[in-house]
Structures are given as structure tokens and as C-alpha cells.
Prior knowledge:
This protein has 264 residues and is mainly alpha-helical. It is 58% helix and 8% strand. The protein is globular, with a radius of gyration of 18 Å. The chain starts with a helix and ends in a 6-residue tail after the last helix.
Amino acid sequence: MIKKLMLASCLFVAAACSTVPITGRRQLSLVSDAEINALAVQQYQEVLKTSRLSSNSTQVAMVRRVGQRIQQAVETYFRSQNQQEQLAGYAWEFNVIEDKQENAWCMPGGKVAVYTGILPITQDENGLAVVMAHEVAHAVAKHGSERMSQGLLQQAGGQALSAALSTRPEATQQLALQAFGVGSSVGLLKYGRNQETEADHLGLIFMAMAGYNPDGAITFWQRMDARENQASPPEFLSTHPSNGTRIADIQRELPEARKYYKAR
């Protein structure tokens, strides 16, 4: 009986898998795109409702300009792979939140927020493209869905999202915010190490396709490293790569990203 249950569990997990674009990594997927996108719209509107949106027209215009270029790059990439269906249900939005947090995120379905606190570190459009392409990469790699699936498996025994929302609405909505990385004061460091590395990889390609120099990722992360607390924990105790590891990984991936880069 135990063997049968273990076999059934393995078959269930194997069937509930999807593949990350570009890297080809297999990931757990217990939540449909339609479900996660609908939940993201709801959570995004709630965040905007309870936040102070920036009235700085220059900053807002820059964020939307960079976002739209990255959006076009992502759509071009998926068309080139005949995988347009991967972006079905996307309704892109780019908003700027007036807040000192050095933060940015992208929910499933292309719902993006950039906090004004990170703009002094990004410094210019190219630096902003590093951040926004990285965050968009989390969304198109379905990291939020993956984390939501893991949470449902751990906390609700693999219960369907619709059922979890019905029986445990508050806990499930909180799980969604955690899965999307919303509410963290270090939005860029909210995912696990594998997901962060994957988002760096995809983000470099998307920003390059959008006409931004991917080499700018090195200087951005060097600036981030200079700002971080020197007493940060060792990498093996952390949920994200150390900046040194991240920079080294990016340097290895730059030759591939440069192939997509054409300055505008």
C-alpha cells in the first residue's frame, strides 16, 4: 500500500510539471495560468489601492518606456519559438510606487511595480532595464506559480487553488503574496537561489533584445553589493546567491546575451 501511495505521488508530481523557457528546467505546476493570472490581478489592484503612486512624470515615463521595450522583447522571443500561448492572458501594467524600499517585482500576467527607492541604484534606463528584465523573467519563468504550487503542496496537501481560496482564503492570499515576492523590502532577493540565477539568465537576454546593454548588469550588482550590510549571512545560510556568485554567473552568461544586443 505504501509503495502504491509513493508511486501515485510520484506520478502526480511528474504529471504536474512545466518547463522554463530558455533554460529548459522542469518545475512543479499545480496552478493553471488562468488561475494564477486572475489571482495576480486581484492582488495587484489591492497593492495599488493601498500604496502611494508616484506623481513624478519623468520617473513614471521612464519605467513605462523600459517596461514596454522589455515586454516587446519577451513577446518577440516567444513568437520566435512558436510559444505565444505561454503569454496568453497577459495584460501588462507598469506602475511606480512612492516608497523608500529598494524594491521591484512582477506578478504573473505582467503586473509590474517599481519602487522609487531603487531608482538611485539603477541610476539610468540601462540600470532600470537590469531590474525590470530580471523581474519580468521571474514572471515568464512562472516562478510565482512554482512557489504557489510548492506552498499548496506543503500547506494544503496539493489542494487545488480554487479550493484553497474557498476554504482558507486569507492564508491562500497571503501565500500568493509571498509567492509573488510582494511585501519584501528586498524584492530582488525574494526568490530561491535557483530561481534568482534563472531570472538573471533570462533577464540578460530580454534586456539585450530590448536594446539595453547586458553588461550593465555587472555594474548594477556591484552597486547593490556596495550598499548591502557587511554582516550579511554566508551564502550557504541564505536563500539567494551572494552578490559575488551572482556577478560571476552573469559574467559567464554575458557572451550569450551579447548575441541578442543591438543598441537603439
